[in-house]
Design a protein that fits this description.
Elements: E1 11-18, E2 22-24, H1 43-48, E3 49-55, H2 56-69, E4 84-87, E5 100-102, H3 106-117, E6 121-125, H4 127-135, E7 141-147, E8 155-156, E9 167-175, E10 178-185
Parallel strand pairs: 1-6, 1-7, 3-4, 3-6, 4-5
Antiparallel strand pairs: 2-8, 7-10, 9-10
Length: 187
């Protein structure tokens, strides 16, 4: 296992979640998130982020959202800009110049993205990539925005088959209707 905290930035799983535990609604719907928080609602998180590592599904959902509602907009948060790495076995054709596509081992992908983060945090988005990182012990913290809605169905917070992982609460705050929970992953 590669050490994750080298003193320069953390690997942080970052997600919005419904009260019933879904990070996306049926059909990968994400618009419900913006009923409760603006894309740039937490500028301090954006400022601490140096790079993102996402999965192909997250990339496709964000691309569809951008094309449908925000031409020219930023998919991953209004206040953040930086390198986005997509872990996939199927890079798109033609390549998307706004993203770097990686394939292979999750530890190598995290190492590449952490280097690009330049000492800031590496944010992990997407259920599959987050699950892979958690299974391999690569995550330092989990940041969850709990939104006051019950979706009833969708993509669950935790990947199926994920073994028990103990967490240490760091903070719990509220911002409007959103409850923000931060946990340290116990290693």
């Amino acid at each position: 296992m590669t050490p994750t905290n080298t003193g320069s930035g953390k690997v942080v799983v970052n997600r919005s979640m419904s009260l019933d535990g879904f990070i996306a609604g049926p059909g990968d719907a994400m618009s419900w998130v913006f009923d409760f928080m603006a894309p740039d609602a937490f500028p301090e998180i954006a400022a601490a982020t140096g790079a993102m590592l996402i999965g192909r599904r997250t990339y496709e959902v964000a691309k569809r959202q951008r094309e449908a509602s925000q031409p020219g907009g930023k998919e991953y948060g209004g206040g953040w800009s930086g390198p986005v790495f997509v872990l996939t076995h199927r890079p798109p054709e033609p390549p998307d110049p706004a993203h770097s596509f990686l394939s292979g081992d999750i530890e190598e992908a995290v190492a590449t993205a952490r280097t690009a983060a330049g000492g800031k945090n590496l944010e992990i988005l997407g259920a599959n990539v987050a699950g892979q990182c958690l299974r391999r012990g690569l995550v330092d913290e989990i940041l969850v925005y709990v939104l006051p809605v019950l979706l009833g169905d969708g993509i669950p917070f935790s990947s199926p088959g994920l073994a028990r992982i103990d967490l240490e609460p760091i903070s719990s705050t509220r911002s409007g209707a959103v409850t923000i929970l931060r946990f340290r992953v116990r290693k």
